[in-house]
Design a protein that fits this description.
Layout: H1 2-19, E1 28-35, H2 47-50, E2 58-67, H3 73-83, E3 88-91, E4 96-100, E5 103-104, E6 113-118, E7 137-143
Parallel strand pairs: 1-7
Antiparallel strand pairs: 1-2, 3-4, 4-5, 6-7
Length: 147
């Protein structure tokens, strides 16, 4: 009987420690947006893909994407899309975002695809090499041409 009591006590203590684990600490937050509204008015239309685009063109938006020092825009992208169960695909070396929400490069013309800006400016590095600052607005936008 003492062994059962002791074992139960050990399980309870372990459960308390595991259940009280702190959530990951984030130092900063940014706004993260995935916008494919340009596809809604693209010259080259893809009726199958148009059905996947929300009316406002926004696949995902959050103003509270937490991150810690040393995390790249790509790290944040992967975490947010995965946690929200939004399908995405990318190439490695260098990282290139092929598709988000089943909207892929070239779905709306040969020059269509995903690009990103930070606070309205195009960074000189890819999203895996860009390390955001607190309050940044990171926009991944689907473009239909490079003009």
């Amino acid at each position: 009987m003492k062994k059962l009591y002791f074992l139960s006590l050990i399980v309870l203590i372990i459960g308390l420690f595991c259940g009280c684990a702190k959530a990951p600490v984030t130092d900063s937050v940014c706004t993260l947006i995935f916008d494919c509204s340009n596809a809604l008015s693209a010259e080259v239309q893809n009726s199958e893909k148009l059905e996947l685009i929300p009316e406002d063109g926004i696949i995902y938006k959050t103003e509270t994407a937490g991150f810690s020092a040393g995390e790249s825009a790509f790290d944040i992208l992967k975490r947010e899309l995965t946690n929200n169960k939004i399908h995405f695909e990318f190439n490695q070396n260098p990282v290139y975002l092929q598709g988000v929400g089943n909207i892929y490069e070239r779905d709306f013309g040969d020059m269509s695809g995903w690009v990103y800006t930070v606070n309205g400016e195009s960074p000189t590095v890819g999203c895996a090499e860009y390390f955001p600052e607190n309050g940044d607005i990171i926009l991944f936008e689907y473009i239909t041409s490079w003009e």
